[in-house]
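Appendix C: a fully annotated inverse folding record. The material below is reproduced so that readers can follow the format used throughout the book. The structure is listed first as tokens, followed by the designed sequence.
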């Protein structure tokens, strides 16, 4: 176990923003010689409780996941509502959006990162857990996603 800020140094996921999830999913599936995963929409606000830059947002995205051994590759096609996904696509185009880590204490880890001038950008809930995107771009040149699972 790492003693760093996150309490872990094991990368769980790399997230990539795309304009066309069906086309990009097929390209990855063909490249790796695997079956194309389904692209599923994120939950509606009443379940997801998505909050972007301190405000509730109706933002949703289509997600497709490739399990690559110890690492998951996540493709994200954002909708038009304000979100870190939409902002990234509009500002940077398609490409790597985040590196994700599973943490055991979401609130404590967010507080520790914010004390290091790495603010919370977006957070939300998913089935059996929650996520938080932290703006670590100035120091680490990429957004970090924190994942906390209930099980």
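Designed amino acids, in order:
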């Amino acid at each position: 176990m790492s003693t760093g800020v996150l309490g872990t140094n094991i990368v769980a996921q790399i997230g990539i923003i795309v304009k066309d999830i069906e086309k990009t999913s097929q390209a990855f599936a063909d490249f790796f010689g695997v079956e194309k995963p389904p692209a599923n929409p994120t939950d509606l606000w009443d379940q997801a409780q998505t909050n972007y830059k301190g405000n509730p947002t109706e933002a949703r995205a289509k997600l497709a996941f490739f399990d690559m051994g110890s690492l998951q590759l996540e493709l994200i096609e954002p909708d038009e509502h304000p979100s870190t996904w939409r902002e990234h696509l509009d500002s940077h185009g398609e490409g790597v959006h985040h590196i994700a880590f599973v943490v055991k204490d979401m609130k404590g880890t967010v507080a520790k990162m914010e004390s290091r001038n790495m603010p919370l950008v977006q957070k939300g809930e998913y089935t059996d857990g929650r996520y938080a995107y932290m703006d670590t771009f100035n120091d680490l040149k990429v957004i970090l996603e924190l994942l906390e699972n209930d099980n």
